[in-house]
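worker-3 :: picked histidine kinase
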Amino acid sequence: MPFISIKSKAVILLVLVATVPIIVGGVSSAYYWGIVEKHIRDDYLAYAKALSALTVSYIDDSKIYLKSQAGSHSAIYSVADKNLPVLNYTLKNIQNTGQFSNVYATDTSGMVISSYPYSMLAGLDEMDKPYVYGPITDTKAYVSQPMLSEYTKNHTIYMGVPIQDESGRVLGVLVGSLDLHNYSFFTSEWLADTGKYTYLVDSSGIVIARYGGQNNMMGKNISNYPGVREVSGGEEGVYEAYNPAVNETQVVAFSPVKSYGMGVLIAIPTNMAYYPIQSAITTMITFLIILMLAAFTIATIVGRYLVKPIINMSKAMKEMPSGDYLRYLPVERQDEIGDLARSFDSMAKTIRADQEKIMSARDAAEEEKNKTEFYLDLMGHDINNLNQVVLGSLELIKDDKNLTGLQRRFIERAINAASGSAAIINNVRSVKRISSEELSLTPINLDELIRACIGEAPRPPDKKVTIRYTPKVGMIIKGTPLAKEIFCNLINNSIKYSGKEVDIDISADEVTVNGKKHYQIAISDNGYGIPDDLKVKLFRRFQRGALKGDGKGLGLYIVKTLTERLGGTVRVVDHVSGDHTKGAKFIVLLPAAQ
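worker-3 :: tokens ->
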């Protein structure tokens, strides 16, 4: 990439400063138009969603109110006793205080006992109406689809709720009529002075309530209008389309009233919808003119006062690694440039000192790492080989039939010590491998690992060891042969930290954690157990879980480290809940291979 000096850039800046604001203004206006347009559409969609929720609330509140009245003392006993004066008063009160255009009560045969204000319904058999026979047969509230009322000629929603006595016996049905013409007035209060047209349509696209728009829209099928077919199908969204009903292009937002099979549409002419954008663009042009003047002034100041110090500081940065950079730094200036120069000088000195420390620390760390690697290799190879020679020799001596009992005990103690030393070395080597190596994960059969550990588990002559295993077929994980160390360590610990009678139960289960399949292996024993205060730190390095038995505390650290590197977890609980002296239970959770 060719180098361009700051001086050249300053000249270019002065040339561009007069044209850039115009370009930026044009691009910003186009971009801003899209942003505001999306914001306006989102607002109208929010209106539609809110009105949809309001519609559900309007119907649900009416149903809840009707239920509460059906459970009132006056409604129950006036229907039970067919006390018409009390029932008439109750229905009148419900109609006056609720949102219903008419309310009536029936008996269990569906016969209308009383109705207000349409008293002519009294004596009619309404059993064929689903909002009457439904509550009678299944004692549940029923809300109808919108339908034309033969009395008001308006679209109406009928809802019926059972009237039940204290024992739950149905005495009749309380029916309320929600005239959607009244709902139109309800929405008009909410949408007043917004310039929006609102339509409530049923699942066929027929207008059943409206606010704004043409008066002849009520009852009209507008399924071919923008958004109607979509909202009838349960979709929501925003369109900008031509509406033949009003001969204009509109922004139409729609949202379904899913609970009741209806839909809400909100429409507004595009010239009204996008008026805020035109106002915003005027403001933007004014701002760009001011910005252009300010940019020209700033560019002039920068070119005269800041360019040269910046060039000198650039030279100082190049000189810093090799020598005399101070001659380029304007440290004498008493302003921000001077502060920057002095800070640069301080930073340069600090960087040089830190570089020296880092180099020294890196060399020391490398030396210590090499020493550690040497000691680990020495312990893992040479000392372990010597251990094997000692063990082999002791085993040969132990076979001598002329040994006394005391001599044999001393030799067995030496064999145990040498075996323990070999185990520690193997554990240290395992810790090194799982901590430093990048594990190569391949499909591993957990069942085979567990069975191998059971087969290799020690059977001390002074202990009776019983291991029961309940397998799970097909347990495949993404792991490494090192995973065997998890279960061998846990089984060996159970044997080591138990009494003469060792009972170990191993179970395998498939569980789901955060939506993903895992395998849970539980290993329980009847050993000495682990006190609660030790459980929280049991898996730390060099931490032992019991006072009895020997060990250096590396086994469980290996278990935890390996399990976590395989993406799993391990924890310990009491074998018998609340009594740690009855043994321990280790639970290993490993993710299944995907």
